[in-house]
Amino acid sequence: MKRFFKRLLKILLGFLLIGVVAFGVLYMLYDQPLPQGTAGPQADALAEKMLKAVNNEQYKKTRYLEWTFAGGAHRYQWDKQNGRVQVSWRDYKVDLDLNTPEKSVVYEDNTLLMDTEAAAIVEKALAYFNNDSFWLVAPFKVFDKGTSRSLVDFEDGSQGLLVIYSSGGTTPGDAYLWKLGPTGFPESYQMWVHIIPIGGVEASWDDWKVMQNGLSLPASHKIGPLTLHMGDVKAYD
């Protein structure tokens, strides 16, 4: 039995070593430093061009958004007008109040939770919403409070829009470099975010669907070999 556990330990250590080496190689090959951009009116103008391309006026009129995330594990119905979101995962349902989270209501297996237990679930629901909604509406958030915008020159002569979120959300300091088409429509962005240790990882924004109210929203994103599906996305007034 001792020999078995020693052998098992060696195998596990071997896999761990391989994983560490593989990560180190990937980090050296793909990690990119955050580029330095040029802030000013031209950067803001490019941001406005993107907002016009994605029909920001229709987004502002849209009251309800529905989608899922994490393979359908996280489910959302967002009432933008009232600042409330129905967030569901596993056995939890949270009526999340975005303006005053402490007024949110939490259920587990249809049982109302109170006090400290409820507060912990509200915090988790808010973190889920901040992350998962960004994958749905990030192009509309380039002028959010706490953001800065700058232009970055690409090697092909085009310019990208670098947006840094210095406050707000769950992980302030995250940065996104948008690559835009000729009309300003977003095609992808590179990320420098706390949750991903390799800087400059690129995610596509090219799978757009037209909603029943005319708003276009992404149905999925590709990150290397992975695809993030947004589920049955809906937008209505």
What is the molecular shape?
globular
How much of the residues is beta strand, in percent?
A: 25-35%
Task: State the low-pLDDT regions, or none.
Answer: 8-29
Radius of gyration: 21 Å
Output the number of helix runs: 4
* DSSP helix fraction: 25-40%
List the helices and strands in order. HEHHEEEEEEHEEEEEEEEE
User: What characterizes the major β-sheet?
Assistant: 7 strands, antiparallel
What keyword list fits this structure?
single chain, 237 residues, alpha+beta, 7-stranded antiparallel sheet, 6-stranded antiparallel sheet, 4 helices, 30% helix, 35% strand, globular
Short synopsis of the structure:
The protein is about 30% helix and about 35% strand. It is an alpha+beta fold and about 240 residues long.
Overall description:
The structure is a single chain. The relative contact order is 0.16. The strands form three sheets. Strands 7-6-5-4-3-2-16 form a seven-stranded antiparallel beta sheet, with helices on one face. It has a six-stranded antiparallel beta sheet with strand order 1-8-9-10-11-12, with helices on one face. It has a three-stranded antiparallel beta sheet with strand order 13-14-15, with helices on one face. It is built from four helices and 16 strands. Mean pLDDT is 89; it is low at 8-29. The chain is of the alpha+beta class and 237 residues long.
Give the topology:
Layout: H1 2-30, E1 38-39, H2 41-53, H3 56-61, E2 64-69, E3 74-79, E4 84-89, E5 92-97, E6 105-108, E7 111-112, H4 115-137, E8 147-153, E9 159-165, E10 175-180, E11 186-192, E12 201-204, E13 207-210, E14 216-223, E15 226-229, E16 234-236
Antiparallel strand pairs: 1-8, 2-3, 2-16, 3-4, 4-5, 5-6, 6-7, 8-9, 9-10, 10-11, 11-12, 13-14, 14-15
